[in-house]
Write a structure and sequence with these properties.
Elements (H helix, E strand, L loop, with lengths): L10 E5 L4 E6 L6 E5 L3 H4 L5 H12 L18 E3 L4 E2 L2 E2 L6 E3 L5 H22 L5 H29 L12 H22 L2 H5 L53 E5 L7 H9 L4 E5 L6 H4 L3 E4 L5 E5 L6 H9 L4
Parallel strand pairs: 8-9
Antiparallel strand pairs: 1-2, 2-3, 4-7, 5-6, 8-10, 10-11
């Protein structure tokens, strides 16, 4: 932290006519990771330790004594997604299925979402209440989201990677002040766009999935920096805090959950159908929690990964057919 002319922070970005770099703290005290963009003449050869130290000095404007624990070159800007996530009995997830440039930090979240999506479907098939077609929906649901997320990450990489510092950036006087103000404004807007991304984190959807029952409503637009909760089938179940202080998600069952937001709704036929399919169905009676305005319905069916797959003010005439649809069950 001593080399920075700024308050201690988790990450620092530096830009000047010679070098663009960033440094992040690893342990919050004395261990850091330093990245710098290599110039064309540097990219195709091994960088010596002396050159690495010089790059650090160019970035921060001073030399300092430090120990290099490890160093390597890597290529940024990847946005690769496998052509398919399933081939017979083989499934791929995480980095095997998609390769991100690290901007936005989306690779890990996307990998976890892959695992959760595939995990409950594998468990359903093993237990006998999930149909064989359920496993096909892993690719149908997750690959479009991987394409979406890698696209966002690549856009963030282009935003920061294509920024060109003007030569006057380090000049004293009005020209330098203007250059620094312009650079600061651009980079501040970039940071807000890259790191304030609830829409990407929470807004992924499975519209068009054969195990989601659409109700004719349209979800909010997909916006990186804004997340609008909606119970439109195919997306994350809206969250709320209950009167006793618990999270709504704390009442969701391990498998499927039916939220009853109006105490008058009869749900026994769905519970009976679930029992015949050997499917664990939790009925959460939340009629006193004022959640109907949030879900815009009396009943909402939520699957194990907290995605709304159906909603309505009354159960359909054939509740078993509904469960067979959302589990791809075939007798």
């Amino acid at each position: 932290f001593a080399v920075m002319n700024a308050d201690p922070a988790w990450m620092y970005w530096t830009f000047n006519a010679d070098r663009r770099s960033f440094m992040a703290t690893v342990n919050g005290r004395d261990e850091f990771v330093f990245h710098t963009q290599l110039k064309p003449e540097e990219a195709d050869r091994d960088i010596t330790e002396a050159e690495a130290r010089a790059m650090f000095a160019q970035s921060f404007g001073r030399e300092t004594d430090f120990q290099i624990l490890s160093r390597a070159s890597w290529t940024a800007g990847f946005a690769l997604v496998a052509e398919r996530f399933r081939q017979g009995r083989l499934f791929i997830a995480g980095d095997a299925a998609h390769l991100f440039t690290p901007t936005g930090g989306l690779g890990y979240n996307t990998a976890i979402e892959d695992a959760v999506n595939l995990g409950w479907k594998l468990a359903a098939v093993v237990k006998g209440w999930g149909g064989a077609g359920l496993l096909d929906t892993y690719d149908l649901e997750r690959r479009p989201n991987a394409l979406r997320n890698t696209g966002y990450a690549r856009g963030f990489a282009d935003s920061i990677g294509l920024f060109v510092p003007v030569p006057e950036l380090e000049d004293a006087g009005p020209a330098g002040d203007k250059a620094r103000q312009g650079a600061g404004c651009y980079l501040e807007n970039h940071a807000r766009a890259e790191f304030n991304i609830p829409g990407i984190t929470f807004g992924g959807r499975f519209d068009g999935s054969p195990i989601v029952v659409a109700d004719g409503t349209a979800p909010p637009p997909d916006a990186a920096n804004e997340y609008v909760q909606t119970a439109c089938p195919g997306g994350r179940a809206p969250h709320a805090w209950l009167a006793d202080g618990r999270s709504l998600f704390d009442v969701l069952g391990f498998e499927f959950t039916l939220l009853r937001l109006d105490g008058e709704a009869d749900v026994q036929s769905l519970a009976d159908a679930a029992a015949t399919l050997k499917l664990s169905l939790t009925v959460a009676d939340l009629s006193g929690e004022s959640l109907r305005d949030l879900y815009k319905t009396d009943l909402a069916l939520i699957r194990p990964d907290q995605v709304v797959v159906w909603r309505g003010d009354a159960l359909p005439e054939d509740p078993r057919a509904l469960l067979e649809t959302v589990t791809a069950y075939r007798p």
